[in-house]
Design brief:
single chain; mainly alpha; hpI Integrase, Chain A; 3-stranded antiparallel beta sheet; 10 helices; flat
Length: 223
């Protein structure tokens, strides 16, 4: 309606004043992202099993450690991986490049997949399908769904994008990563997008209060 009256007033010149200029729109609370806990993430990694186990383990390891988008993962090429520098070059939204620094788990998973499992074919993509072509988004989503089910985590509404939320949450909650650093890791355009993860600290505050040794009610002496 606001845009309609803007059109009537400014474009069509059918009215001189916009009656909705001072109308305040209701604030819609942004829902906190779904994510796996640290224990659930470990359970997922421990239970990965498939015909292409090494590949699937590598895919989920990158999701959980790097927080990359699905499109970024399937778009990875062998030339994007620098073993010497332990980095991945990722092409994000708006074709904006960023560099992801890899930890030991990611380097180990990538090296094992590339060296021992990935077919030695003339293919630029890192992750390949059974047909030795670049793996597509739908197949990666299926892999994640299958492995979540194996780990008994299929009822939590977790998707590939929720694994991205998981990585960000684990870095913020357990790694103490600053939001500005997290913004760069995730490839967010605005810090406002990253700040949603600061709201997750409420759960940490709750747990901290409950961990106080005086948190349980103490039986008072009877007079």
């Amino acid at each position: 309606m606001k845009q309609f009256y803007v059109y009537l007033c400014q474009k069509a010149k059918l009215i001189s004043n916009n009656p909705l200029d001072d109308l305040e729109l209701p604030h819609i609370n942004q829902a906190l992202p779904k994510y796996l806990s640290l224990e659930q993430s470990l359970e997922l990694l421990r239970n990965i099993d498939s015909k292409n186990q090494v590949r699937d383990y590598c895919i989920i390891t990158l999701f959980l450690n790097c927080g990359m988008r699905l499109s970024e993962l399937v778009g990875l090429n062998l030339s994007d991986y620098s073993r010497d520098n332990r980095t991945l070059r990722v092409l994000g939204k708006g074709r904006k490049e960023r560099i992801i620094y890899l930890n030991d788990a990611c380097v180990s998973a990538l090296d094992e997949y590339i060296d021992t499992t990935r077919p030695h074919v003339e293919q630029t993509a890192i992750f390949l399908s059974a047909n030795k072509t670049r793996i597509n988004k739908r197949r990666v989503q299926q892999i994640v769904d299958e492995q979540l089910q194996r780990a008994g985590l299929s009822n939590l509404g977790i998707t590939t994008h929720k694994l991205r939320h998981t990585a960000a949450t684990l870095m913020y909650q357990h790694g103490g990563v600053d939001t500005l650093v997290l913004k760069d890791i995730l490839g967010h355009k605005s810090i406002a997008t990253t700040e949603i993860y600061t709201h997750l600290s409420d759960e940490n505050i709750k747990k901290a209060m409950e961990s106080n040794p005086l948190s349980e009610e103490i039986e008072k002496k009877k007079k």
